[in-house]
Amino acid sequence: NPRTGARLGKSHGYAEIEWGIMRMLGKVGEETPVVTTVHELQLVNDEIPREPFDLPVDIVVTPTRVIRVSRVNPKPLGIYWEYVTEDMVREIPILAELRVMSSKGQ
Hints:
Blueprint: H1 14-24, E1 35-37, E2 59-61, E3 66-68, H2 86-91, H3 94-103
Parallel strand pairs: 1-2
Antiparallel strand pairs: 2-3
C-alpha cells in the first residue's frame, strides 16, 4: 500500500527474518530505509492486515515512478521468536545461535 508502506510478500517471512537478524545485531534501525520494486499493477490502496513482525517500506519504485511513503507503522524491533518455527530454525541456522543469545539477554 503506497499510502501506509504495508506490503505483501511471498508469505515466507524471509524479509522480516533478515530484518530481525540485522536489527538484533545493531546493523539496521528505524531510520534505515526499506525500498521495494514492484510493477504499477501490484500497488493496492486496500487496507493490508499486518502482524507485529511485518516490515513496512519507505520507498516504492515502479517502472514509471518513485513513491516516498508516509509510513504509519514502525519497523520490527528484532526477531519475534513466538512466530519462528523449528522449520525456520533448520532452514536458517543462525537463528538457533541468535535464540540462545536472546535468551541470555545479549
